Amino acid sequence: MSAAKPFEPVMTAAEVENFVMAVFPQSDIYRWFAKDVRPGEISVGMRISDQDLRPGGTISGPTMFALADVTAYLLILAHIGEVALAVTTSLTINFLNKPEPGDLVAHGRLIKLGKRLAVCEVHIEPESGGPMVAQATATYSIPPRG
Amino acid sequence: MSAAKPFEPVMTAAEVENFVMAVFPQSDIYRWFAKDVRPGEISVGMRISDQDLRPGGTISGPTMFALADVTAYLLILAHIGEVALAVTTSLTINFLNKPEPGDLVAHGRLIKLGKRLAVCEVHIEPESGGPMVAQATATYSIPPRG
Amino acid sequence: MSAAKPFEPVMTAAEVENFVMAVFPQSDIYRWFAKDVRPGEISVGMRISDQDLRPGGTISGPTMFALADVTAYLLILAHIGEVALAVTTSLTINFLNKPEPGDLVAHGRLIKLGKRLAVCEVHIEPESGGPMVAQATATYSIPPRG
Amino acid sequence: MSAAKPFEPVMTAAEVENFVMAVFPQSDIYRWFAKDVRPGEISVGMRISDQDLRPGGTISGPTMFALADVTAYLLILAHIGEVALAVTTSLTINFLNKPEPGDLVAHGRLIKLGKRLAVCEVHIEPESGGPMVAQATATYSIPPRG
Q: Of the candidates A23, A144, C77, C118, which lies 20 to 30 Å from C40 by C-alpha distance?
């Protein structure tokens, strides 16, 4: 059996961010930014505002879901190139510790990049440090490439 | 072995909606409303606005996640009473068919209501009819009741 | 938007059972049997033996996983016909209540049957009655049909 | 906000293996063995036999589920000590690549170790090398410790 083939990115953090901002202008409302693309991995930051908060000052579940989802999407794009049509087929998110109000950073890791499906793990942490606040596994369907 | 005990609601749709609006005023931004509470079940509607849409007119993943999460939360509240501190511990969502722009309705069903954990299934459909657009399973942690 | 199209089975319980026993003779070790196929639904029984038990007499997780997986597989086959190559891509199982030793029955429900992916919910209960012991959601990849 | 506290094991691979073999003698049928315990991590091997195989020589889903589940259980035990009563509450498994017949190794990583819940990621690979064949996320309920 051959060794596992390493994942090789084909876009930089700036390229993937610019591409998504151009094709999904509405995604701006999530205030995310691609920080860094590495082989099989990505880091994505998110600025948290008042509308993301819940009573007690914690960050809402939909905000963390949105960060996990955009992180997986950017990670896949960075490794397959400009294919806007990849769509989430499923996402499992575990909420681990209540986040304090403050910016978040998500670290995404490619687990599989097949012809039809891609699978990623995402870990979300406070930008300021501290324990992981959410963990997600996302599956994306990749359109046939002609 | 005894028969399965049926679930009995302790709050009406109006009561659960008023309670959540009072303790989570921010949740208003999701524009949901409890339609109906039945034993072990709930129906929750959501009005879709421009900010929920994505290119091509489809509804965003975070919007459907938010509807699944609020539906599970309202369903549990309706069966355990006014306990604001139940928190989502995990949520798995499957995106099934691209929704057309338009209001959504979610049907939640209690699968387990234990002392520490509750598990629900949620089915999301277009208000106007048509195939299911998302299916979710949510697990909530229930605080000790004194 | 048109109404949701109902699912129509193309094989009976006996046909789907015979087909799987022929192409997967090893699956016999799980001692399952198809009880009933209905539009979009199936019921599958499983005989529990000593090797399925754990200390205290409860039924093992892998046994319940195997029942959930075979139920989803039989349900999909019954609706797409004799296609042995459908493969599980993901399965989420929630363990709800410790089962007493005794036979189990699983009720599967089709949520989506697309060209490439099928999604099912499975509820596992004691054959003798009592509360649900496990709930699963399974996703299958369907091979291209020529 | 303080830095994330590292996980510290309290049992060695041999200790955790001996403890589980003593309290769950039936688990022997899965033919697993703890290879290595590190802070927040474990590696567990599994010998594959004919009964684990499916047509075409691939390894069955229930076998991979059993390996993921025992890996998460051993990982948690190694970090909380001899508490036989931790129980799986949910497990999500993604099947990534068809495994060739041959022994497997699972790498488990603690994501959260709380008072009531623990969450782990598990990656399953062929012992002989090659791409990951399955990825799982498991949640365990931890009994109150007196």
A: A144
**pTM: predicted TM-score of the whole model, two decimal places:** 0.94
φ/ψ (deg, to 5) at C109? -135, 125
Place of tokens 């069966």: B79
- Residue B143's CB is within 10 A of a number of other CB atoms, namely 12
Indicate yes or no: CB of B116 within 8 angstroms of CB of D92: no
Joined together, the tokens standing for residue D9 give 């094991």
Asked if D132 contacts D123 with a C-beta cutoff of 8 angstroms, the reply is yes
Give the residue from chain D lying closest to A1, CA to CA.
Answer: D130
Identify from B91, B92, B111, B139 which residue to disrupt to test chain C contact, counting C C-beta atoms within 10 A and taking the largest count. Answer: B111
pLDDT at C75 over 50: yes
Top mean-pLDDT range of A1-5, B113-117, C49-53, D104-108: D104-108
- Do C24 and D62 form a contact (C-beta atoms < 8 A)? no
Mutate to test the interface with C, among D71, D91, D96, D119 (most CBs of C within 10 A): D91
User: B127 CA to chain A: closest CA distance, Å?
Assistant: 21
Cβ separation D54–C88 shorter than 8 A: no
Distance from D89 to chain B by nearest Cα, in Å? 9
Distance (Å, whole) CA A89 – CA A70: 13
d(CA B137, CA D91): 12
Residue B7 within a domain: no
In contact, D133 and D96? CB cutoff 8 Å? yes
Q: Please check whether residue B2 lies inside any domain of the structure.
A: no
CATH of the domain at B103: 3.10.129.10
Whole-number Å distance between alpha carbons of B100 and D105: 45
Residue C72: inside a domain: yes
**Which residues in chain A have Cβ-Cβ distances shorter than 8 Å to B92?**
90-93
Q: Which residues of A touch C116 (CB under 8 A)?
A: 116, 141
The count of structural domains within chain A is 1
Spatial distance between the Cα atoms of C134 and C141, rounded to a whole number of angstroms: 23
Name the burial class of residue A94, with classes exposed (0-12), middle (13-18) and buried (19+) by CB atoms within 10 angstroms of its CB: buried
Do the chains contact at A121 and D121, CB–CB below 8 Å?
yes
* Banded model confidence at residue C84, pLDDT cuts 50, 70, 90: low
3-state SS assignment for residue D79: helix
- Dist CA A63 CA A46 (whole Å): 9
Name which of C92, C116, C117 is nearest A92 (Cβ-Cβ): C92
Can you give the residue range of the structural domain that contains B60?
Answer: 13-141
Residue B96 pLDDT grade (very low, low, confident, very high; cuts 50, 70, 90): very high
Whether residue D112 has pLDDT greater than 50: yes
Whether residue D36 lies inside any domain: the answer is yes
CA D32/CA D15 separation, integer angstroms = 14
